[in-house]
TrEMBL record:
Notes concerning its domains: Has three domains with a flexible linker between the domains II and III and assumes an 'L' shape. Domain III is highly mobile and contacts RuvB.
Organism of origin: Nocardioides perillae
Record protein name field: Holliday junction branch migration complex subunit RuvA
SUPFAM superfamilies, sorted: DNA helicase RuvA subunit, C-terminal domain, Nucleic acid-binding proteins, RuvA domain 2-like
Ranges in a coiled coil: none
SMART domains, alphabetized: HhH1
Described purpose of this protein according to its UniProt entry: The RuvA-RuvB-RuvC complex processes Holliday junction (HJ) DNA during genetic recombination and DNA repair, while the RuvA-RuvB complex plays an important role in the rescue of blocked DNA replication forks via replication fork reversal (RFR). RuvA specifically binds to HJ cruciform DNA, conferring on it an open structure. The RuvB hexamer acts as an ATP-dependent pump, pulling dsDNA into and through the RuvAB complex. HJ branch migration allows RuvC to scan DNA until it finds its consensus sequence, where it cleaves and resolves the cruciform DNA.
Gene3D superfamilies per the UniProt record, alphabetical: 5' to 3' exonuclease, C-terminal subdomain, DNA helicase RuvA subunit, C-terminal domain, Nucleic acid-binding proteins
A single GO cellular-component term on record: Holliday junction helicase complex
Record gene name: ruvA
Segments of this protein annotated with the region Domain III: 148-204
Biological process, per Gene Ontology: DNA recombination; DNA repair
Superkingdom of the source species: Bacteria
Subcellular location: Cytoplasm
Amino acid sequence: MIAFVRGRVAEVGLTSAVLEVGGAAGGVGLELLCTPGTLAALRLGAEASLPTSMVVREESLTLFGFADDDEKQVFELVQTASGVGPKLAQAMLAVLSPDAVRRAVADEDVKTLTRVPGIGQKGAQRIILELRDRIGAPVGAAPLPGAPAPGAAPWRDQVAQGLVGLGWSAKEADKAVEAVADQAGDRPDVGALLRAALQTLSRA
């Protein structure tokens, strides 16, 4: 298994990033599927190190990349619940922080879990039932030392792209971005802004 990937950021897309490992002379580009918050912290040409989780299928090998080990742990744990695959697990972490997932499960907060596209009321109840004894309490995890500060990239584009990647239309995404613009401040936190935008859309 590939536990982490360290290398130069060669490409940052809407839903994934490519890290070049092995040096310029004979490097290999590995594509990592990431949440918008993780992608927002990456800089083209800069070195990055991301914890990873490999999902093996008969027809594919897919690497998911994470901001930190806590995010990776929750990603892998929620997939032990019935009906939760890697794409839905990633969508959960695009909408909720790892601690927010733990808190929602511990508090049996169905409403919070159903903010995630693809999770209905019955699905949320099943996740709570199957994970509440194993997911643990919120830990207040901080970013890994040396991790880039989130949100330095143009936050409007990152949030809009994240919403479109989760299934909303470009028009809906732009409207939600405008609705949360006053929360951006001097150092926008893309992950928090994305979650706020999703809450706006869920209320609409």
